[in-house]
Predict the 3D structure of the following.
Amino acid sequence: MIKKVAITGGTHGNELTGVYLVKKWQKEPDLVRRSSFETLTELMNLQAIQEVRRYIDQDLNRSFDLRDLENENLQNHEAKLAKVINHRLGKKGSSRPNVDFIVDLHSTTANMGLSIVVSNEHPMTWRAIAYLSMKEPRLKVYRWAGDVENAFVDSIAPSGFAIEVGAVPQGVLRADLFLATEGLVYHLLDFIEQENRGSVLSLPESIEVYEHEALVDYPRDENGEIIAMVHPTRQDRDFAVIEQGDPLFLGLDGEVIYYQGDEVRYTLFVNEAAYYEKGFAMTLTHKVTQKIPH
Amino acid sequence: MIKKVAITGGTHGNELTGVYLVKKWQKEPDLVRRSSFETLTELMNLQAIQEVRRYIDQDLNRSFDLRDLENENLQNHEAKLAKVINHRLGKKGSSRPNVDFIVDLHSTTANMGLSIVVSNEHPMTWRAIAYLSMKEPRLKVYRWAGDVENAFVDSIAPSGFAIEVGAVPQGVLRADLFLATEGLVYHLLDFIEQENRGSVLSLPESIEVYEHEALVDYPRDENGEIIAMVHPTRQDRDFAVIEQGDPLFLGLDGEVIYYQGDEVRYTLFVNEAAYYEKGFAMTLTHKVTQKIPH
């Protein structure tokens, strides 16, 4: 039984879709109210939202590692904020959490369309994703592992995921992606309402998931400076196949760099602005079939 | 006779096309060297480039008003930087300027394609634009007047303009727009070389120009908060016609706001990230025919 759901926006202050959806719902809470559970709507990083920046001191969505939450020496803006949020919406790992399900709203400059980033194995998480996939055929699912693991906002509740939509620049509100994200959240709330009531839902037996494989960085010089761009034929090709010999990067000097991997992969988060500093130009994934628990 | 040309990038630190083109040319100066004039390549706002931000204290590309350049009380980062740049690449209004022509490289989150933003009436400016229009049929020309006038980087030299390409998110380098901008700059240098040598160029007699008419802000509440988004049917429609009754904005609450103007206009800079804080969602223009001086 889900008793409390948190819809969180503005975890990254320059991802406006979630910021403005939460503002909308805080004005019109009836839109996200359902009878069998309580819905919280939260703007996460108010200072970063104010400054239209991803973060002030460190990435809030990499700040929920359990050891970091318990480390009193970490006292910068986001480290402190993570502790406050964990107290309110966690606590992470608790057997009596304050919130049962977190959906964290993100956007990306990559052409990810409508996607879910999941790093949680709770049956409710996967049943919810299966329901959304049924309602929104464009939805794609990425099982994340990457630069910092198990440190996302949604990791502090037993179940949940991030919704990731794009392409949209940082600091821009795009109506089409706003409406699509809004629709996904309403489907999610309807799903939880039906689960709580014990409705028999005919969910798919399995869904297709893009499973994380590797991070690929931009070619850089000895000072860490980027010396190549995502190749024009790879730009915007998220959830698209890449095979040995496909152009991957184009050097600033014009040299083409080809993909050398033996295996067929799918590229995600291609040329995302926020990942230049993290050191990756895209992620490589393979497709797996994920069974949906019944 | 043009003796010195400056190619400037990184006037806005999060517009990477110009930043990486200038870095390329500083490594390979032969690419922009021509026999009849000297070419300077300049990274403008190093601290903003380092921080991948548009600016530190104020917009550098609004900091070249003559009165501001002469006002010793203005001492924030960009106000001081503008004075230094004006000393090196100006001086603005001087009869013996250090640089004859400035091309300032920009990018935009709006779908502006390949465009020129001009606010200069020098014959050389317009002949250069005519030449580029001939070489690059996709090129569009916008005669700017807007929030702050005659304060652009290129205003400190007798002739020049900004190249503005999009759509590309802030903090992202897109290969296609990098290559297109690079091509435009080579055409410009070739043009100046031919002019200097007295070659007879068969330029068009006139070109089409989008002339600035008005700024349109997002609908806002009493606190200045945005309460509507660019309507999905207007998003990405730069250099596109707008007529009375066309959907203009979509309220966060779902209400459609229609364009009320009597005259047919063309929308530019639709939903540019950097203009949220400046208070405009797009600019309205009308088309004029610009004669090219011979």
